[in-house]
Amino acid sequence: MSLAPALPRDLPADLEAQRYELARARQLARAWAETLPEPKRRDMAALFTRVAIETYRTEARPHASLSSPFAKPYGRLDRAAAELARVVGREAAPLPGAEAAYFLTGLYTTLLAARERGALGAFYTPPALANRLLDMAEEQGIDWTKARVLDPASGGGAFLLPAAERMMAALPAAEPAFVLRQIGARLVGMELDPYAAGFGQNAIELLLADVTAAAGPHHGLAG
Known about the structure:
Layout: H1 15-33, H2 38-60, H3 79-92, H4 97-111, H5 114-120, H6 127-139, E1 149-151, H7 160-169, H8 176-186, E2 187-189, H9 194-207, H10 209-215
Parallel strand pairs: 1-2
Helix pairs in contact: 1-3, 2-3, 2-4, 2-9, 4-9, 7-9, 8-10
């Protein structure tokens, strides 16, 4: 079987239009966040992101099992904000898996106040740059069947997601349970912000949902 993550469903004819709609939804979410009192904003950003991720999972990766949050945000979203978060999750469903996961985890930083982003160092590496750096590592001879990856400021998983994809691609004939053990042992992210860390964990779980399902109910990716 192929261990490359499958697309959740057929991509729309115009993927750029889908990305445009998502960008619009993110702008609306940002405008909503800017109306919030700053002491509440980080918790509301985490709640909004959680709803979007859960909706995406339901729409695109229903077989994925997501870990519980590392920290529970205080408060609750109002009805309009919760519906907007669900719209974002649904709109992200047609995107390629890694792109959708990065977009969803990036919502959290998008909704934070500038001062909070600075204090947390919440500036995620763009996927194109992360992939280019991994390409450079490959050019220097990295072996993805053995390589260990440690990201000391992993955020939403900008480096961990493409690294996991490359580890899977390097083990095309391996048993799914073996692949999960390898990734669990050789891919490590560290993050001070418990909300960001939880979303990064969820992003990896979404990416590996097919492999985890194929491995069976007693196998999973350790947090």
